[in-house]
Design a protein that fits this description.
Number of helices: 4
Largest sheet: none
Strand content: under 5%
Radius of gyration: 14 Å
Order of helices and strands: HHHH
Number of strands: 0
Oligomer: single chain
Shape: elongated
Structural class: mainly alpha
């Protein structure tokens, strides 16, 4: 749900600024991956490993949003 909302809000920014940035593709990809996972494939990978991967990808998305929208000093 949260990644979907992030992707939606980034989509609104892309429309407002008429510009697609790297974070837009990352958010869409992460959202699609999470929406298409089923419980069996998660357990095949391992729940712990799956959660670690999601956290890693969410952190990478946050860093990319920071770079794309210049939130750093």
């Amino acid at each position: 749900f949260c990644v979907g909302k992030i992707a939606d809000n980034l989509g609104y920014l892309a429309e407002d600024y008429d510009e697609q940035l790297d974070c837009h593709a990352m958010a869409a990809g992460l959202n699609a991956r999470l929406r298409n996972e089923d419980i069996n494939s998660i357990f095949d990978v391992g729940l712990h490993e799956f959660i670690q991967g999601v956290i890693r990808d969410a952190n990478a998305l946050g860093r990319q949003i920071e770079r794309d929208y210049r939130f750093y000093e």
